[in-house]
Design a protein that fits this description.
Length: 470
């Protein structure tokens, strides 16, 4: 059983990552709700410098991406890897040092953003000193996981391990390149080259960090909660190598109207459609694993959220591919449709998977049951209804903007008054989403505090049938 402050206790690092991430979640989405208010009432926080839109948006994005999603995801890895290797994590102490350093560096980085200390590059805003601290934690995490794998008892590598090993290996390199860490004074290149680098990094934060890192969680939870072997190990590897091959170049589809090499744009469009292959492989693999198991969603909270994340991943992936079509990109580029797409990826896909993962892992770490399954399901209702309204606000705003600019030739300022009702929809939906996330955090911390004892099923490696038969 883990305890929060016993840094050598089994699973304590995993718990500390996940619990701190749950606290960060509430902060991050509160920032987001304030931003939604500012879209409709621009002067609501007039005279409060640290709530200026430009500062707050950067703080919101980095809190959600790194403090909440990344922290929770690393916590899930530290929980999953020992289960799939048959070994305790190589060093709980290193894991806990990583958790403490991660949270401390993000406090410095996010407070710095609110104080206007920014490098002003998408997903790479935090100052150089914070970048160094983040790199140190990423490398510590890499060593901890790889050493655990190197000393594993289980000879076979289940697919979740492929995704986790790949992600912890390539993201430190991606972070170093994307933050231009060889140029400390600016953290940037010059001219259009910096734009190319920034979107290579920005899109691969989603593809080679969150996508691969979170599919590992889905591949773990679904077989465990359904007590059904994964349908196909082969399909899972098609998805893995497909993402590794196709995702690296898709970032330039955000630059189809920028003065970058035409061949780079063409490669981005082609790879965006190539992503259909791994997405379909993942979709059918989970779909076929769920055959005869759909009723279990009614009794398993982790499975409910994991399958929601699975569906959201399919939606956001196909939406991303169609945005690479030049005609559609012309309509949606520079509109609110694009941040709506980002929220579908981060707020719906990523958050769904991680809430399911935390609801699965925390009771097992602390040998107890979820404090309130009723609250978890009520939270889910708020989440689905709220996000649907929230996303619809982005969608309607973006389509209205794009059609007005492209088809009617209207200047930007004349379109703004008509967008207010759609922006207001984001406030309503956002408030429901924030309510849902607060309920989630309360439920998680109450689970740890109350610790109602219950006998949970033992952990077994959820090997695919092809692997276990070999």
């Amino acid at each position: 059983m883990a305890t929060l402050f016993d840094w050598k206790r089994e699973n304590s690092a995993s718990a500390n990552f996940m619990l701190s991430a749950a606290a960060w979640l509430v902060i991050g989405v509160t920032f987001g709700l304030i931003l939604a208010l500012e879209f409709v009432f621009p002067d609501v926080f007039k005279g409060v410098p640290w709530l200026v839109f430009g500062r707050l948006r950067q703080a919101h994005v980095n809190t959600v991406l790194f403090a909440w999603l990344s922290g929770a995801m690393m916590g899930m890895w530290l929980f999953i890897v020992p289960k799939l290797t048959g070994r305790k994590i190589w060093s709980e102490l290193v894991g806990n040092i990583s958790a403490a350093a991660w949270n401390l560096s993000l406090v410095v980085g996010i407070v710095g953003l609110l104080a206007a200390q920014s490098q002003s590059r998408e997903y790479a805003e935090m100052i150089y000193a914070v970048d160094v601290a983040v790199m140190v934690v990423l490398l510590l995490n890499l060593v901890n996981i790889w050493m655990t794998v190197a000393h594993r008892v289980e000879p076979k590598l289940y697919v979740s391990m492929w995704y986790i090993i790949g992600t912890v290996m390539w993201f430190p390199l991606l972070y170093f390149i994307g933050n231009v860490m060889w140029a400390p004074p600016t953290g940037a290149l010059t001219g259009v080259n910096d734009t190319i680098f920034n979107w290579f990094y920005g899109h691969n934060v989603l593809g080679l960090w969150f996508t691969t890192g979170l599919l590992a969680v889905v591949y773990y939870i679904v077989p465990r909660e359904t007590q059904t072997p994964l349908y196909s190990h082969f399909l899972s590897l098609i998805a893995f190598w497909g993402i590794a091959f196709f995702y690296t170049g898709v970032g330039a589809h955000h630059l189809l109207w920028a003065p970058i090499p035409y061949w780079l744009k063409t490669v981005a469009v082609a790879e965006s459609f190539g992503m259909v292959i791994p997405v379909m492989a993942f979709m059918f693999n989970i779909l076929l694993t769920m055959r005869g198991n759909w009723a279990k969603i009614r009794v398993s909270v982790p499975l409910l959220y994991a399958i929601t994340g699975w569906a959201a991943y399919i939606l956001v992936s196909f939406q991303g591919s169609h945005q690479a079509i030049r005609g559609i990109n012309e309509l949606t580029h520079f509109t609110q449709y694009v941040p709506g797409h980002a929220h579908l990826a981060l707020l719906f896909f990523s958050a769904s998977v991680l809430m399911g993962g935390i609801y699965y892992a925390i009771p097992r770490i602390f040998d107890c049951e979820i404090w309130s399954k009723r609250m978890a399901r009520a939270q889910y209702a708020f989440y689905i209804i709220g996000f649907s309204a929230f996303f619809m606000g982005f969608f309607l705003t973006g389509i209205t903007q794009g059609s007005s600019w492209v088809h009617e030739g209207l200047p930007v300022w004349t379109v703004l008054p008509g967008l207010r009702p759609y922006m207001a929809l984001r406030i309503i939906g956002g408030a429901l989403v924030v309510t849902s996330f607060v309920m989630f955090a309360v439920n998680v911390f109450a689970t740890v505090k109350v610790r109602r004892r219950v006998e949970l099923p033992g952990e077994r490696v959820p090997l695919a049938e092809e692997v276990s038969a070999s």
